[in-house]
């Protein structure tokens, strides 16, 4: 019995990000293989907008707290069957199984972005937190995790570029 408990704890440790408690890339790969057998699957990939500024301004411990809070929001906001993942650094992913189409997946991503934007304080410090997210959907028979991650990553950088352009337009330039 003790060996079984140890094996379970070891397995959980190998599938979990130690900082945030979210699933890691290995867990994503396992869940993807399981879900692609049952229908279409989407993967969202995102990273924090302006994350370096948290570390530079408040230190790495504060940056870790931001990542932990984002992970809490993702864990709370994902639906049953969805899997939030910390890939590395300030990059996250969400496996979204059973989505009907790309528009549905994009709507789901906007919901997650909105939830993350609701983070307004970390350790008593006011913050503005946002995440660029891109999502890609594939039918079960052709779904490939590497291709999905790559395509979602490309879309995420498109989202990041659009949001950066909006921010630059919204900020008046000194004359």
Description:
It contains 6 helices and 6 strands. It has helices at 2-14, 25-35, 51-58, 60-77, 102-117, 145-170, and strands spanning 41-48, 83-88, 91-97, 121-122, 125-126, 131-138. The strands form 2 sheets. It has a 4-stranded antiparallel beta sheet with strand order 2-3-1-6. The chain has a two-stranded antiparallel sheet with strand order 4-5. The relative contact order is 0.17. Mean pLDDT is 87; it is low at 165-175.
Core attributes:
6 helices, 4-stranded antiparallel sheet, globular, nucleotidyltransferase, Rev_trsase/Diguanyl_cyclase, alpha+beta, two-stranded antiparallel sheet
Summarize this entry quickly:
This is GGDEF domain-containing protein. The chain is of the alpha+beta class and 175 residues long.
Helix content: 40-55%
Biggest sheet statistics? 4 strands, antiparallel
The count of β-strands is 6
Uncertain parts:
165-175
Radius of gyration: 17 Å
The succession of helices and strands, N to C, reads HHEHHEEHEEEH
- Across the major sheet, the strand order is 2-3-1-6
Mean pLDDT: 87
Shape: globular
Keywords: Nucleotidyltransferase, Transferase
EC number: 2.7.7.65
GO molecular function, one term: diguanylate cyclase activity
InterPro entries: Diguanylate_Cyclase, GGDEF_dom, Nucleotide_cyclase, Rev_trsase/Diguanyl_cyclase
